[in-house]
Amino acid sequence: MFAIKKCAWLCSCLLVLCLFACQGEQKADKTETAGAKTEKKPLIVTTTSMIGDMLRNIVKDKAEVISLMGPGVDPHYFKASQGDLKRIREADMVFYNGIFLEGKMEAILEKLAKSKPVYAVTEELGKEQLIQMTEDGLEKQYDPHVWLDTKLWASCIEVVANRLIELDPSWKAEIGSNAAALYKTYMGLHKEVKTEINSIPEASRILVTSHDAFNYFSRSYGIDVAALQGVSTVTEFGLKDVTNLVDLIVSKNVKAVFVESSVDPKHLNAVVEGCKKRDHPVAVRGPLLSDALGEDGSSEGTYEGMIRFNAKTISEGLK
Fold this sequence. Notes:
Helix content is about 50%, strand content about 10%. The chain is of the alpha/beta class. The termini are far apart. It has two domains: about 45-190, Nitrogenase molybdenum iron protein domain (Rossmann fold); about 200-319, Rossmann fold (3-Layer(aba) Sandwich). The radius of gyration is 27 Å and the shape is globular. Helix 9 (about 240-250) crosses helix 10.
């Protein structure tokens, strides 16, 4: 009898313990769920690191921002992986450059825009603000490297800010304040670059690079540019292109050529060798940051740092 009572008592204790355990687990689950709801932030995906840096400065800690293209990545050749496509599908909002910088990926993004918020940061730039690459009479194509003109890039801030407010109207005041501060920073940076480039003797303001990414930089800061490849690194180059570039360097007494972080530096070797054969040795400087920011955590890993680094590297190489 005692054994039966003892067994019943033990069973009751075990039942009570189980109930407390289950309640504890339920409370923990609810706490975790509530915490997840509290801590979970909207996910914003950007294609390039330049756009990502802009977004982080505007949205601050209100959202998680992921850039698909990291340091040294060439957006002209970029192909989205399955992981990239998964991030895009999971994103609450997606920003890309547009003007066919992202190549074939742009068609995917435009299609996706029918079902979720996907925007080109350049969507409100007028054609008169863009640099046309094709000759009159042909289908018009425009240079997508607008971020290398800091003033023009600053004009894209308003588009981004307005779209973010659409995502969450309660952000309006803070997003507006952050966007205004960033615009002021970019305009100050624009003046810095002008001063830096103006320090180069006028006759020496000729920037020779791997591919033709610096047209907006040229227009905004008063420096001529010449490149081995076209606006897209997909463009092939041949012996005539090399010869023409060598002729320019020798005739204009150019002191240096500049490699780029996202383009194979070997591309300029033929030009350098051609100059040597003409008794005109040139220095190889850089790499310039044309299509991607520098390494995360470095001074060049931000848009401001990228632009300052490029301006300084160019001025020191051509003086």
